[in-house]
From TrEMBL:
InterPro entries: ADH-like_C, ADH-like_N, ER, GroES-like_sf, NAD(P)-bd_dom_sf. GO terms for cellular component: cytosol. The keyword Amino-acid biosynthesis does not apply. Residues 1-291 form the Enoyl reductase (ER) domain. One of its GO terms (molecular function) is NADPH binding. Gene3D superfamilies: Medium-chain alcohol dehydrogenases, catalytic domain, NAD(P)-binding Rossmann-like Domain. This is NADPH2:quinone reductase. Coiled coil: none annotated. It is an enzyme of class 1 (oxidoreductase). Its EC number is 1.6.5.5. It comes from the Bacteria.
Amino acid sequence: MNFAESQMRQGLYPVIPDTPVILGAEVAGVVEQVGGDADADLLGKRVVAVLFATGGHGGYAEYAIASVEEVIQIPDNVSYDDALAIPVQGLTAYFLLTEAAKISGTDAVLIHAAAGGVGSVAIQLAKILGIGKVFAGASSVSKLELASSLGADVVVNYTDPDWMEQIQTETDGKGLSVILSSGTNDIVKQSFNLLAPHGRFVVYGSLDILSSSFGADQVMQLVFKNQSVTGFYIGSYTAIPGNFKRAADYLLHLVSSGALKIITSSRYELKDAQQAHEDMANRKTVGKVILKIKSN
């Protein structure tokens, strides 16, 4: 499950699907049938898939149809739950860092919602890719403890009134070179002020993007500090031929080797999908949220 699906259900997502609709953009299971252009060897194989090419929906069901280009075999030692974190959250974290933010080893990176599905992967990938200093932001002690255990160098609690000063101290007053932003409007505005000259501010999955405002003061800051603001949508990257399989194979290899840990502590039965959405909206979930169709 993804936070975007919770927003769709509430009518808060920028693009609302026509109803009736079966939500769910990613699935994992065993291949039951293949089309004429697909490799027949996939029959009976354990796979994980994203459903972008077939409309981006349909995962909350016992069966789903996926394009063969968006299907990846799961290594034998990787569970379905762990594999499910790869097609959306995992690839989002990967392309945010490598393509949208264009990170380098000297960067100081702040990752919002650090205990979420994207954030928990992004922290680890940032360290694997050699980022200089990784900052993680969240709003509870338990989530910050998780972020630290995953490799964050500095953690900040948004409920602390001096969290911005903490970051300035840790960067020797230089600010952050990269901010991966998915927070609320207030947190977005506050963290924008922490962006260093030539910094990159990447917006993805904002909780209240439809009510966000970007005024003259922010534009002037961008101009005189040579900063940039970049939007991010995972579908634009996976649509590039070969991108999905290349990146998904890489991440699954990291999971299989033990280099990348997937947090999947939030599991729900299909009948409890609405409760799962409400828990995500209220920040009660940690890591990847899994919707279990049946025991497997």
